Amino acid sequence: MEPVLQAAMAQFHRAADHLVLPDRHRALLTSFKTTYQTQFPVEMDDGSFRVFEGFRVIHNSARGPTKGGMRYSSRLTLDETRALAMWMTWKCAVVNVPFGGAKGGVRVDPLTMSNGELQNLTRRFTTEIIPIIGPDQDIPAPDMGTNPQVMAWMMDTYSMAKGYTIPAVVTGKPVSIGGSEGRYEATGRGLLYVLEEHLAAEGGIVGRSAAVQGFGNVGGVTSTLLQQAGAVVRYISDLEIALFHPEGIDATAAWMHVEAGGSLASWHAEHPNAAEPVAHEAVLEADVDVLVPAAVDSVITGQNADRIRARLVLEGANGPTTPEADDILDERGVTVIPDILANAGGVTVSYFEWVQARQYVQWTEGQVNAELRRLMVSAYRNVVARCPIGSRGVCSQREAAQWLAIERVVEAIDRRGIYP
Ligand code: GLU
Fold it and tell me: How far apart are CA 403 and CA 397, in angstroms?
């Protein structure tokens, strides 16, 4: 088992021990309802073809149709997909949206593909998984390496196969074809709402310093929203470059540049005085109030957890902190707002999008954001009610979020009973 799946399993067993979960429930919740693995050819621009491998894993559907992103990444494995699917089950349960958990993707570096090749790959992969996805069955969404355009191709391919347009088969689509206002920013906005709630009793966000690792849909939007909320974003970074400014970086300008097709490095080249390049480790080890890991899993580990200086870690990525690191951070009194709570804004607005698509209605961005805030704040309060902030050595917010999620999933399993 790969370390990332080991981590997801270890988190689960720790929570299951606390809940004194019977073995039969443990067996069910550490297994995966459906594992779909496919190798398929894609025609490339030069007329040749390449074979790619794709996955879709459905972890548990006790609470409803399953939900989770589609990841295009050169390091995607089945175990990683499984870990991510399991986290989706807990995430949907923490924010109490009526979905189970799933995840999928293709092992590919999308940056090496042309737009046409990506479309071919997406359409062929979607065709391969038609038997297991569907608006009442399993509903994909964007994740690392995918975006609204990829969702549009998935929706179109699925609809062509069925013979009519089925907008609710994916979420995170462009607004023009049944996507939701506010979905694109939803993960970042959810992180902001959770942070605002967390800091409400401690003087709020204005003037707080932050370091954000990752500058994609999650890190880029989060940096921008933090800046707009009055925080001082001292560090931002992507794979290529890490940037620092003691007075704060104009993350909004950097994000606009990246959104327009540029890179963080080219933004820096155009504005050399806006920030100075630093080593990548400097971001995670920054002396700031809030650290937001918003890139990949397993970046805060047993090796570097004692060098984290922020007092608060707000997990934008899925699985950025390993269980060993969790223990070290807890011992050091660092609060971690866990992924399955902190970054649940994406799937929450995916739920709103699915509801709108099924009803053929369109909410305003104001409605979407107000409902998002309500669900995120309520989830945060439910978690903190189970483990108050500062319960060092007694419990963590990750454990509390897992307890809440597992209890809700177990309630659904027990109410439904085992078929036949
Ligand atoms: N990929 C996102 C996540 O990891 C969103 C999933 C969804 O909206 O279904 O939470």
Answer: 10
Burial class (CB in 10 A: 0-12, 13-18, 19+), 415: exposed
Gap from CA of 277 to ligand 1 centroid (Å): 31
Helices (H), 271-322: 281-284
Ligand 1 centre distance from Cα of residue 97 (Å): 12
Q: Does domain 32-169 have CATH number 3.40.50.10860?
A: yes
Which pLDDT does position 20 carry in this prediction? 98
CATH for the stretch 186-342: 3.40.50.720
Q: What residues contact 116, with CB distance under 8 A and at least 6 apart?
A: 45
Domain pair 32-169 / 186-342, same fold: yes
Position 123 scores a pLDDT of 98
Pick the catalytic residue: 33, 67, 91, 103? 103
CA 381 / ligand 1 centre spacing (Å)? 21
Smallest Cα–Cα separation from 341: which of 375, 367, 311? 375
Record the tokens describing residue 83, joined without a space. 């870990």
Can you tell me which atom of ligand 1 is nearest the CA of 349? 8
At 135 the pLDDT is: 98
Residues whose beta carbon lies within 6 Å of some atom of ligand 1 = 67-69, 91, 141, 143, 171, 318, 343, 346-347, 350
Q: Domain limits of the chain?
A: 32-169, 186-342
pLDDT along the chain (420 residues), means of 10: 98 98 98 98 98 98 98 98 98 98 98 98 98 98 98 98 98 98 98 98 96 98 98 98 98 98 98 98 98 98 98 98 98 98 98 97 98 98 97 97 98 98
173 is catalytic: no
Half-sphere exposure (Cβ direction) of 406: Cα atoms closer than 13 Å: 25
Q: What pLDDT score was predicted for residue 397?
A: 98
φ, ψ for residue 190 (rounded to 5)? -60, -40
